[in-house]
User: Fold DNA 3'-5' helicase from hydrothermal vent metagenome.
Amino acid sequence: MGFEGDMNDLEQRERALDIGGSFIVQAPAGAGKTELLTQRYLKLLANCADPESVIAMTFTNKAVEEMTHRVLSALKSTGGERPERGHKRVTYDLAMAVVGRSDERGWDLLGNPRRLKISTIDGLYGLITSRYPVAGQLVPRQIMAEGRDRVRAYRTAARRVLGLIDEGEYGEGIARVLLHLDNNVGKFEGLVVQMLSKRDQWLGRLYRDNVLDLGILRDSARRIVLEHLVCLSELAKPCFDGEFFALMGVSSDEGVAGVEGLPGCEVGDLAKWQVIANLCLTGAGGWRRTLTKANGFPVEVKEQKERLLGVIGSLEGREGLRVALGDLGNLPEVDFSQGQADILKDIATVLKLCVAQLNMYFEEQQMHDFIEVALNANQALDSQVGVSDIALFLDYKVQHLLIDEFQDTSASQFNTLEKMMGEWQVGDGKTLFLVGDPMQSIYRFRESQVGLFLQVRDSGIAQLRPVSLVLETNFRSSQGVVEGNNEIFQGMFPREDEVHQGAIAYSQSTANAQVIEGTQEQVITFHPFADDQYLLEARAVSGAVKSALAKDACGTVAILVRTRNHLADITRQLEGDNIVFESVDITRLQHHLLARDLFSLTKALLHLGDKLAWLSVLRAPWCGLVLNDLLVLSDGDEEVIYEQLNVEEVVSKLSEEGQRRVRHLHHCLREVVGNRGRFDFVELLTYAINQLGYTNAVLSEVELAIKDKFLRLIYDCERQQRLDVETIQSAMESLYAPSESAQVKLMTIHQSKGLEFDTVIIPGLGRRPRSADSPIIRLREFSNDCLLLAPVKSAVDAEDSGAYNYLKFIESKQDYFESMRLLYVAMTRARSSLHLLGAVNKSGNVAKNTLLALLEPFFGHSFDDIDKTPDTVESSAVLQLQRFAELKTPVNRVQAEGERVDYRQNFERLFKSALGTLVHQYYERKLFNPSVDNVRNRLIEIGTPPSEIGYWQGVVLRLLDNTKRDVQFEWLFKQRESARSEAIFFVNGRTIAIDRLFVDEGVLWVIDFKTVELNEGELLDAFIERQREQHGKQLLFYKAAMSEIYDYPVRCALYCPSVSRLIEIV
Assistant:
């Protein structure tokens, strides 16, 4: 095909571009998998009938943007010279073929890139559900519940179920579950929220026929035990012969001596297997090296004891046997009690009620979450419910499917893909191309299951058996980094794959010869620290950064941590050393000083009596009162501080500078306070911020981004009628402050996935992650449809049941293996050098369940000579009051900055906006003949001056009458099942509101109402052209957004009732 260079996997890469076959490709870090995926996508485009028949999917919007950029860049590059060699020439040639095909068939892909079907898995769900209307609606719900809205929905569902506790049908079961939790309502709500947030993982399992019957529960546990014993027996047969059991027979311990041969594989044999495990393994799980009288081997049987230890010592390399013996103590008990079965049924009933209440709440709020969309998509694809036409539609339309990062697939996503390809057959021309790296599967918290990659690799999916390909050439890292990582992870990762536990064997990489090797210095450096030496560790990080930049002033440096709170000391140290850095989603919005000031201003304007908020506003830089002046204004519990700002008797008590600053603040805010309720709050807040001097012209790039993010937050809260302090604060907790771009980047390991840097620094390796919460019910499906369930312990139980602990043990094993993969992701980001930093605990040992514990076999000796002198904490500088040195009144500021702003005209614009909203509300309610009193009252509500009510009353009635008389009226407002008014969508990080949306004769119409009037002397044609210029771009954005969501042709138009015209935007 044209690949060149020193690559050990050249044949594999060329075969991956055989578009007649299906493949699953394992591509380790730095192997160029995205480029390979792009090349196959281009080749498919060059040979397909329509670009829509080739779908490429991944799991994040960022990844979609990257691949789309790669494809379009490749197409654009065809206008330049052909590269001389290597993968770039391959990509160029493929892109040239696509351009030729595009010209031949009139696709115009560069002019119409939306024909490229590159999307997230959620985008696929949207395509499916758009073909499957629910309850006769165009779309079931418009608002995507995320973050705080999603948690609020889950919590509301839990509270509504608790409200049913006094009802006969369900009340007793709810009461029993609550009693099981010690009547702790908060705990009940928290556990329900946790379960609803992953309901797609248990809804399809928990309510199978008879799954909660006592006999089935016991049988499931028994099957798990038997399967383990069968596996253990196979591992043990070659290792334990007659001599071994004869030597056990000399033990003075009757239990040990009583094991005369290899036990069987029935539940009753478990105790004997446990005896063998206790004899061979230490409490820590390693092979035993000594036997004593306590084990039943006194001095008198020294010879036999030595021989027995020799047998045990010969098992040193039998890792599978050691693990299987060690796991015996974690197996579930097989004697489920009736009480456990009963509480499981009660919990299942309560959870079912919670799901029902959640769906009711979603319907009321016109919301949904990603889980519901996924569940609806799976339902639409399920032929058992009679809508297999969806699957047939996709089967016809989709000819080639490519999926990136396949190792991150969840069970529900896998089910969707499997159903979608249910009718695909080998040889029908359809192909599947899966790319991923199981060693980089680090999203278990999102329910991704790395075992699914192994399952498809070994057994296929649906009717397809993709050919497995493995890449090994690393184009990213130097030879030293590659070989160092190989040595570490070859010894760390398990030797064999294990699907259920998420164990992945290591696949070695080979450095590409064209990657330039750095200096001969050590490329992987380990920095050991004693307990609580976090400041020393931070200084070492800063030193490593300085060293890296000194060697390569243009090089990139990344500081990667497991959790954000590991960065506090490091950020302070970098700031103290004047090192400019970019923190990627590290600082929460609520912790940024500007965001805090804006939040204080918001609280103060929402509640004039909020004393603390007003004191914060007065202290903020836009006013900057000193403490003595604040004490004067806060004197008196009953006084409203804002009202005191206009009382001369109070203001005169302030310092001379304080009086000037207070009068300035009052002057800036009096119009805003006086017009509360007349206009949208976000408009008033924006006006207030600008009046106080925080205009776009004076804010830094980061401050401007924070201001925009905060105002967008307020807009969203107000739009959803949740403009309250608690909601705003909750929203701020889930948002992060932007940061300036810099060479040195601070981020979590998860955020670094897919990126690369010259130098990578990984501190905090000895810190433990937060412990996972215990869910109200644990369940897991094993082979042969064996489902094990267990409830959390009750308030009176000392410990959880054996089944619950076994399921928890399986989770901990999966966490353990994922921590290996997390470390692998972090260390493979480096091109030329790596710095690893970690500290032991107070006992001088490496803490368990840390990333450092995984590295101890390789760097443990480094702790032998560490300096254990504790950190010395330097006194922190006292924060000084920040305030504007010079206060400018709005008039002076306008003159000084050269801005031309007419604030009276600005308030007139705000009023007309409120008037338009009023007309929209009449449209939404289909109230076209309101009474004069009704219109008058509504005008008063929005703050219309009394002298102008009569005039504006006439305007509103005229606009509604024009609409009613318009020939387009019946078409615009007739009853349709598909029709929506004020439809809210979340698109590409933006919330958009569409005034009216409906399907007519197979076309989706997007209508935007505009109550604007003709200017004096303006001709109708000029008016129409003005509206197209002012609003066309926005309408075309709406059109593009709807085209992504719905599989209908989309047309859009403005409707202007003042001139009775429908103005289509094309």
Q: What stands out?
A: The domain at 524-586+742-779+792-863 is CATH 3.40.50.300 (Rossmann fold). The CA atoms of residues 657 and 912 lie 39 Å apart. Confidence is low (pLDDT under 50) at residues 135-140, 384-389, 875-879, 890-907.
